[in-house]
Structure formats: C-alpha cells, structure tokens
From TrEMBL:
Domain annotation Tr-type G: ranges: 4-186
Sites where the protein binds GTP: D16, H17, G18, K19, S20, T21, N133, K134, V135, D136
Keywords recorded for this protein, A-Z: Cell membrane, Elongation factor, GTP-binding, Hydrolase, Membrane, Nucleotide-binding, Protein biosynthesis
Gene3D superfamilies attached to this UniProt entry: 3.30.70.240, Elongation factor 4, C-terminal domain, Elongation Factor G (Translational Gtpase), domain 3, P-loop containing nucleotide triphosphate hydrolases, Translation factors
Recorded family membership: Belongs to the GTP-binding elongation factor family. LepA subfamily. Belongs to the TRAFAC class translation factor GTPase superfamily. Classic translation factor GTPase family. LepA subfamily.
Protein name: Elongation factor 4
Species this protein is from: Levilactobacillus bambusae
Amino acid sequence: QHQKYIRNFSIVAHIDHGKSTIADRILELTDTVSKRDMQDQVLDDMDLERERGITIKLNAVELKYHAKDGETYEFHLIDTPGHVDFSYEVSRSLAACEGAVLVVDAAQGVQAQTLANVYLAIDDDLAIIPDINKVDLPSAEPEKVQEEIEEVIGLDASNAIMTSAKTGLGIEDLLEAIVNEIPAPQGDLTAPLRALIFDSVYDDYRGVVLSVRVFEGTVKPGDKIRLMNSGTEYEVNEVGVNSPKPIKRDYLMAGEVGYITASIKDITETRVGDTVTNAAAPAEEPLPGYREMNPMVYAGLYPTDNAKYVDLREALEKLKLNDASLEFEPETSQALGHGFRVGFLGMLHMDVIQERLEREFNLDLITTAPSVTYHAELTDGSEKDVDNPAEMPDSSELSKIEEPYVKATIMVPNDYVGAVMELCQSRRGEFLTMDYLDKYRVNILYNMPLSEIIFDFFDKLKSSTRGFGSLDYDVSGYQTSDLVKIDILLNGEKVDALSFIAHRTFAERRGREIATRLKNIIPRQNFEIAIQAAIGGKIIARTTVKPYRKDVTAKLYGGDRTRRMKLLEKQKAGKKRMKAVGKVDIPQEAFMAVLKTD
Ligand code: GTP
C-alpha cells in the first residue's frame, strides 16, 4: 500500500547551521533538480532570501528516493526558517510532518534556536534525527556536539548522522535514516477529507494556491471543497505537488503533502491553519489549527506618494495570505497622511515585509519606529492599549503605564558572561538565573522589557560576544514602568510620527541624543530647520539644520534649462524613502533614529 512509502519531514536548526544547503544536497542526490539547474538554496526562491542568505518562508517539495532496500520512497521535505522572528513558520511546517531532521553545526554546537525549534518538534511528537553538519570544518568537534545534544536537549545522539552539506558527505546516510526512523503517515483513505492548509500564495492566473497536508480521505479535481472555519465552498481545478516545479496529479490522498487550486479569488477567506473538507461528505470536526501568533511590535507604514494608499492596502492583503502573522489597520498621521499600523513579529520580519512590499508591489514606503503595545490606565479610570507612541495620553491624564516584558534566554561561552550581563543591565534587564550547560557554556535568563530588545539588542549581543551569543525570548507578561512620551518638533510643529516612549530616567538624555542625530540625518534645505525635543510641552533639547548656501544647480556652467531640469529630475529619482512633512523632507533613517542607542 502506497502510504507505506511516504515520508513527510522538516529540517529544523539554528540559523546558518546549514538547513538550506542540506536541502540542496538532498534535491541533487535524488535527481529532483539536475546539476545543471542547481543553484544554491533552490528552495529559497524569493530574491530577498537569496540576497540575505536566509530562509524566510517555508517551502514544500516532493522527491523520489531509491533506498538501499530496493524500494522507491516519496519524500515530502518542508524547509523551515531558523530566525527567531519566524518560528511560527516552523511550527506550521511541523504540523504537516511525522519527523524532523535536527541540524546542528559541528563547530557551533547547540544554540538557542536549536533548542526552541527542537522543542516544537518534541511537543508535536515527531521522530527526530540528529544531524551534525559541517564536519568538514577544521574547527568541527562532532563528538563534543553529540554530547551536547544528549546533555542539553536530552535526545539520544549515539546514532547522529555526520554530514557535510558542502562536500555531500553523509547525505545518503541521512536519507536512509529518514526511511528507517521516520514513520510513514497513517490516515484513513476512505474517511471524509481533512487537509490542513499550512501555507497559501496568490497567483494571478490560478488564484489562491493552497499548500496542504492531507490527513484523511482524498481530494481530486472536480470535488466541491469547503474550508471548515471560513465556511466557503469552491470547486477544485487542480491538485498536485511541487517538485520543485508544480506537477499535476490525479488526486492527493491521506498522508500526502501538495497543493490545491480552486479559482479562489477572495484572498481574505483562505486562512492558514484552516481545514479543507469535502462539501458533499464533510468531516465532523476540523483539524486542530495553529496557535494564533500575536505581533510583538507595531509600526506605521506609509507610501511616500499619498496617491499609492490603495495600492498599499491591496499589497498588504496579498502578503497576509502567506503570512498569517501580518496584521494591519488603517491609521492617519498628521505628518505622513494615510497609511497603516502594521503588526510584526520582530525587526527582521518588519524589514522583510517592507522590502517585499517595495519589490513585489513596486511601492516606495516609509516605516515609523516600531513600538510595543503599552497598557495605559487613565486618571478617569478608563484603560487604553497604545501601540502608537503618538497616541500615548499626556502624563497629566495617566495614572499608570504597563509595558510587555519577556523572559530572554541567552546562551554563551562562559568567557562572555560579564559582557552579556552588562548589556542586559543597560537595557533595564532583571537577572533571573544562570546555569552551566557543560564546562564551557552558560544559559542566562533575564526578565527584560520587550521594547529594549526588539530593535538592536540581538546585534549588540552578537557584537559583544564575538558572534557566540544566541537568543530566544517569550513574552512573560506586563509590568508597570515609569515611562514618558518624548515629542519631536520641526520648526515648532510637532511631528506625530517621530514621537517615542522612553523610561523617565533616560528620557532627557535620549531627547538630546535624538535631536543631535536628526540634525545629521535631515538633509539641508534652502531654509533653516529647528529641531526640538519636548516632554509634555517642556523643551529639553534644540538643534538646527543650517540652510545650504548655494543653489545645487549653480555649479552647472551656463543656464541651459534642459540640463538643469535633468539634474533636478535625477535628484528626484534618487529621493527614495523620503517623505515631505510640511516643507521639510524627512528620510527613512530619521524615523528609526529615535530607537538607536549609540
Ligand atoms: P537559514 O536558511 O537562514 O535558516 O540558514 P540555514 O540553516 O539554511 O543555513 P544555510 O544552508 O544557508 O548555510 C549557512 C552557511 O553555512 C552557508 O554559507 C553555507 O554555505 C554554509 N554551510 C552549510 N553547510 C556546510 C557544511 O557542511 N560545511 C561548510 N563548511 N559550510 C556549510
């Protein structure tokens, strides 16, 4: 029976430990992709993923493996991202699998995201195959890493596979282990259809393409399907698998991973985590869905050209389709006009969304400084959630502000404990505990305000631990804090989009720092620009941007009008990510400047 020969698995790892490269080698070894078509990280098909060398979106691919037992197996490999911002993508792919390959870098050992990801797999009761990768590196210490996997994670690593995704060593052993150690899927082929949607994308020709894992029953073209949570019904046009190009199939059955298209045009009705069933013979209960992901930070997103507001809304709706964690609602800023308040899982997520919107939808955008959600209690007894600093009530109206705290887990070699503590302390961290993982490595726990770690904490951690520190965090709850709002004024006008919130003890210093920083960022114009920082109406800092003395075009010999126009045109085209606020042009960096720390 066919199911016996199916293996559904994911690869999980800390970032850069080699997941995508292992996936490449697997595709090559199984002739899924010919050597000629092979380019690095085939599954990272977004340009952005290639350029940054990271996996952002999960990808599913089917491949055929001729095993040593003489049988041919159908593998469904689901690649997952490793960065902390994208861990929700990991749990989504795991829900579609029976097993996971846990990749650990032979030189770096177990890191914070190794732990976070493997625990997700353990929670889902998946079979786990430890794979120690990069054994070709001179600094590789595979035996030490093997011990670490046993001690730190508590997994038996005596049969760990040793691989080098670079040279191809051990990849075949890994494929054999997948056949032998990961169970075949089970699921009644004759039961009513139940398929989990774990991803979806919008295609201009085919409509919404659903990526599904079929748990029970079968689905084929012509079937009437129903999405159980949204209640909508469609007729299936096509089913198939990605290998990695789409290949049509006559049907998909219990145990398989593939895609369904059904001329679904309304992108708002397909939700990742929903269950597809057959409308004529529906299942009684949907499959358990996904944990809802709550955004950690919110930022304003505005088109630099106000006329592009509707385009931005459409683009956000399309992106939300394959990024369920994206949340947005319209907002209006006095300074920036109409835009959206958008929720993100972290700064990398925010960067990625901004870049995808700009590239895939040809928009030019400004994002304001990200903010966490504060709970404010007002003197009149009412309460308010504030995710936009500009909307924080004046301190005279406030009785209490609470901010979100996280439990941060930091793993470092013991030489860096001092540096990490210093960094955490400077970010208002409260020390919780410290444990030795083995002779060399420590796990440090801090209770910290989320606002102190979202922006550049991870970069600072990396630089103060020479790249060895790794971080994971979970929201632990809200705590009362003594916070104040700082406003920025340009030529006496408050710019709402530049307001920010800081702890009272740092507020004045931050106000001064930011006024100075803005002075260096805001380009000179032909008039003077006064920059002021204020707390509740009291000015705490002032700087000025001097006007430029000469006309830019003056250096052109002669007053040739067309050349002059050309130069002005050129300047205009180069004016990316710049927004005119009143008469002042403010570049993107200015909005982020309020969060920078040195
Ligand atoms: P994300 O997709 O961002 O989560 O990272 P990843 O875990 O997929 O890592 P990726 O495959 O992108 O590899 C990271 C880096 O390590 C790349 O520069 C690879 O070329 C390199 N690398 C991967 N495997 C090996 C290996 O076995 N040996 C050596 N020397 N380098 C490797």
